[in-house]
Specification:
By secondary structure, this protein is mainly beta. Helices cover 0% and strands 32% of the residues. It contains no helices and seven strands.
Length: 111
Amino acid sequence: MRRTSAVIGTAAATLAFLAPAGMAAAAPAEPSYTVVPYENVNVRQLPQKNSAYLATLTAGRSYTAYCWTIGESITDHGITNNIWISFADGYSSAVYFKGDQYGNLPASAKC
């Protein structure tokens, strides 16, 4: 099950996934993993490129992810992948993360 958090307000609201890895206020009940995008990557509400935009993760920073899921196939830099990484509030394509096809999450970490 993917964690969710309420977003209240507009631009002033801070989404939970924007906190760097290891900076969470409370330990999650489910396993979490550290992922690092190799370029800036958008976070979407659903695992689809045209889903609502939520935020942008900064290249080179560490973020806490919870699992991966199958979504829309994305092709960039000659790589095609349909794996999307799940954060507390949304999803990003694994194409943009360092590591393997799962963005360095274990294959067993499927949502």
